[in-house]
From TrEMBL:
This is DUF883 domain-containing protein. The lineage of its organism: Bacteria, Pseudomonadati, Myxococcota, Myxococcia, Myxococcales. Residues 1-11, 26-43 have a biased composition (Basic and acidic residues). Residues 1-46 are annotated as: Disordered. It comes from Vulgatibacter incomptus.
Length: 144
């Protein structure tokens, strides 16, 4: 009698395990299908963004180079006023912006967007911190 109830318990347990595996497989399949649908829905949007970004890239790069030049001028003014530490910051920012403009000029907008996306996913804290610091620096420079 005990072996029969034990066998019945094993059958019930096996049945639950089988149902759980089927449910997990269904979730994984559904998740994969939803991910593919989302990717397919985003594809035209990404393509449009890349097209617009590529069309505007030249203007943006020129604007960055002009901004870097303005920062260099501002850096010179800071140096003349005896603010060496702020001068180094402004000069370093101008150099960084010039480097970014050079990278943007050499690469396609799609490549840049892909790299930015990967960087944000890999290091969200660093990106947010950098954006905050850049905004703070911009406000400081505009106020002085």
């Amino acid at each position: 009698m005990r072996t029969e109830s034990f066998s019945e318990g094993e059958r019930v347990s096996a049945s639950y395990e089988s149902e759980a595996e089927e449910t997990e497989e269904a979730r994984e399949t559904k998740g994969t299908e939803e991910g593919e649908q989302a990717e397919e829905a985003h594809r035209p949007v990404r393509k449009r963004i890349a097209t617009v970004a590529e069309a505007r890239k030249g203007e943006f790069v020129t604007g960055l180079e002009e901004f870097a030049s303005s920062l260099d001028d501002f850096s010179d003014v800071l140096g003349k006023r005896g603010h060496e530490s702020q001068q180094r910051i402004a000069s370093g920012a101008a150099e960084g912006i010039r480097n970014a403009a050079g990278i943007l000029r050499k690469r396609s907008a799609s490549e840049v967007i892909e790299d930015l996306s990967e960087s944000v996913k890999a290091h969200p804290g660093v990106i947010l911190g950098g954006a905050f610091a850049l905004g703070f620096l911009g406000v400081r420079l505009l106020r002085s």
